[in-house]
Amino acid sequence: MTRGDLVSLFGRVAAALPLSRSVQQPERMRRIGVLSYFKDQNPESNAYVVAFLKQLAEFGWTVGNNVQVDYRWTACDAERIHQYAAELVALAPDVILAPTNSHVWPLRQITSTIPIVFVQVGGLSGGSITSLASQSDNATGFTSFEFDLSARWLELLKQMAPRTTRVAVLRDPGIRMGRNWPVPLTLARSLNVDVGPVDLGLGVGEASEIKRGIADFAEMPNGGLIVLPSAFSIAHRELIISLANEYRLPAIYACRDFVVDGGLMSYGHDPIEQYQRAAGYVDYILNGTKPAELPVKEATKLELVINRKTASALGLDVPPALIVAADEVIEDTPASG
After folding, report:
1. Which of 308, 310, 315, 307 is nearest to 337 (CA)?
2. If you count DSSP H runs as helices and E runs as strands, how many of each does the chain have, helices first?
């Protein structure tokens, strides 16, 4: 056997053998940061995270295998939001997932390089995330609603409670969406409704401000509430629902979770869907796509949910047209208050 034959033989044998662990080149562990407005171990936050991780696994990313996830739970406390945003950035993850304007803006103030995928951010046409869509930006994601949706909130509220002549818009003035409180005044006038804002501060310790604002508004009759979506309103959901029902104020919310907990009605996006879609963008980024190459997209699924038991407790008969239009009618959830 010649030397050439030996080289050829060794080559064929080597090719047939599996590579040892020492010479394999495993894919490096990727890192995802998640900034959440919930408290740790909150069942609702768990549902969102599970939906995100399950969809991420569909793209081949599994925790402990090729991806690590670092969580920070802010409980909507303003100080924690900034502190935990800084902590996540310091970990230098490959991408950060963040919900709502109040959590995205602090991240963007800290980093212009780490990719950010956002969900539940409001008001693309209203300008609050115009800069997020910039071709040189490090953030992209999914908006929860357009400002035009506020007209539908007012129409639905008036349809549910025709005697309503005054509507308070519960807003977080700390974000641009809240400052602009997007309710078309021309529509309000055509419906014979006076609309005005009620400012609510951001933070877990602001319960007294919520109570005072709603109580003051309820002193006059024929009132109703539009609760704008924000991390703040979500953090104080149970309190807001309880006060609305206590003062017999028909209220419309932007998320089904409020109605499940005893709120009257909601019209808005499905948060679970947004987290699932966000997993797709995270997959793109982990595979090398730049955030600027991924367009900001609007919510595709809007749902009308009505709590008939709460309506009855408020002395309201749900119009048949609303029952037909509703995606879900909750019959047995006890009203708050």
Report:
1. 310
2. 14, 12
> What burial class does residue 189 get, using C-beta atoms within 10 Å of its C-beta: 0-12 exposed, 13-18 middle, 19+ buried?
exposed
- The beta-strand segments (E) located in the chain are 30-36, 67-73, 95-99, 116-122, 139-145, 166-171, 194-199, 223-227, 251-253, 265-269, 302-307, 328-330
How many alpha carbons lie under 13 Å from residue 15 in its C-beta half-sphere? 6
Mean pLDDT, range 201-212, rounded to an integer: 67
Per-residue model confidence as pLDDT tens digits over 308-318? 999 999 999 99
Query: Which backbone phi and psi does 114 adopt, to 5 degrees?
Result: -70, 125
User: Structure tokens of 11?
Assistant: 């080559």
Sequence length of the chain is 337
| 3 state DSSP class of 63 | strand
**Residues paired with 140 in a beta bridge:** 117
CA angle 117, 63, 43 (to 5 degrees): 70
Q: Within 10 A of 191 (CB to CB), how many other CB atoms are there?
A: 17
**Distance between CA atoms of residues 227 and 207, nearest Å:** 15
- Distance, C-alpha 44 to centroid of its chain: 12
Q: Is 211 helix (H, G, I), strand (E, B) or coil?
A: helix
- Cα separation values, 294 from 58, 66, 115, 283, 288, Å: 20, 23, 11, 12, 12
111: which 2 tokens? 């980093």
* 3-class secondary structure, 116: strand
- The pTM score is 0.78
When pLDDT is cut at 50, 70 and 90, the band that residue 236 belongs to is confident
Q: Mention every residue, 6+ apart, whose C-beta is less than 8 A from residue 303.
A: 256, 266, 267, 268, 269, 270, 327, 328
Tell me the domains of the chain and their CATH numbers: 30-146+270-293 (3.40.50.2300), 149-268+302-330 (3.40.50.2300)
Please provide residue 142's backbone torsions phi and psi, each rounded to the nearest 5 degrees. -135, 130
Task: Find the helix packing angle between 271-286 and 43-58, rounded to 10°.
Answer: 40
CB 163 within 8 A of CB 223: no
CB 142 within 8 A of CB 118: yes
